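Lab notebook, page 48
Experiment: co-folding of the full assembly
Goal: obtain a model of how the components sit together before planning crosslinking
Operator: M.T.
Materials (sequences as entered):
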Amino acid sequence: MTPALELKDVAKTFTMHLQGGIRLPVVSEVNFSVRAGECAVLAGPSGTGKSSILKMVFGSYRCDHGQIVVHHSAGWTDVASASPRHILGLRKRTIGYVSQFLRAVPRVPALDVVAEPLVANGATREEARDSAAKLLGRLNVAPRLWALPPATFSGGEQQRVNIARGLLPELPILLLDEPTASLDPVNSDVVMELIAERKRSGTAVLAIVHDPGVRARIADTVIDITCFAAAA
Amino acid sequence: MTVDDEPLLIADGLSKWYGRQLGCCDVSFRLYEGEVIAVVGESGSGKSTLLQLLCAQLAPSAGRVLYRMRDGVTRDLAALGEAERRFLFRTDWGFVHQDAALGLRMTVSAGANVGERLMAVGWRHYGRIRDTATNWLDRVELDRARIDDSPQTYSGGMRQRLQIARNLVTQPRLVLMDEPTGGLDVSVQARLLDLLRGLVADLRLSVVIVTHDLAVARLLSHRIMVMKDGQVIETGLTDQVLDDPREPYTQLLVSSILPP
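Observation: model returned without errors.
Model output:
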């Protein structure tokens, strides 16, 4: 079976021009792949480049070297060299991303924050809101919050809105950055269930998870990222 | 991947000198339907010059602008007659100025400001024009009871929303915006941005928005072009440019934002 996502010889270095041009090598020679229906967890201490890898796959960080190959229904795309338009297309139809923190837009109600990716993919607003409401309900976000912008929600509530937004479109590749970090055990459990469901329906999951219990439940492979440490 | 690959607008090597003073230099990009590009950079970097070149308000010293007309034919703006260009400006294009007074007629009523664009495209039925204008006041969240008031009696935020209604009533495909939220207080700004975000998505507008506010660029745009001294020094996806800026000047811009 061909992988859904392949990283080949990926390297990333930050150059901080405001600090006298210091170069901060983050990772190099990153090689791994994730197959459909499989969950790979990136492991390693903070600051070793786990989130950077996720962001490169999503296209929000540039990739200095190597290839990030994403397979989709119409063939494959190398995110590292794709045009902005193609990356936006991938985000719509292929790659979902749940960031560590929700970036809330002022004035947009939680229900629409979650429904938006479906609307962008052509669903009617009612359909999208119905699906969003179901998922928010499963994640125990109280219905009285749905009409409110999430900026004032608690950390855990914001994170569940964020998860719902990332999971709702059921895209073939899912990137998760500490999805359960700010959640209580009950909600953590719901999220793990949702991830397991997505895996069964063939989603390739690449996740950052520190919690050993969560990791044990969702991971099929653990990728030790310290072996990609770039020589400083 | 199925992407509609005909750009709406192509800027090709655009340069403008004001005598010996450089306005902007060798700017090229493609704008597609439904796409929002933010042009960021400090004042004097050539952002507004670029905007005026794009809609043929200024003639370029070098380069050209190609635009795909409603009939699907892509044409060089310089080759259009003055009447054709004016017609585009009244129908297919919108231009939102920072100072709403420049984009409105301050001595006629709000309703007439919106209705005028419709009359310019041949609408004659007074009742229909008024209904449509009222509708647009609702869409930009202006009180319809104020339809007969002149924009002189409006606040800055209301004027800006009226200017947007006036521009969008003819269902343009391309909208150019020059600092549309500049000079408004933050709560008014947030409301306007949210309104613009919704309209841009619903109407699938193609937009070039000039701003020096990176938060505005983050909220509205798909792509960013960073300008400095008349040149585009960095371009990319909005989150790429803001989260992983590459050029020294872009890093300076991004690091200069005060957290709220």
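Interpretation: The mean pLDDT of chain B is 92.
Next step: discuss with group before ordering constructs.
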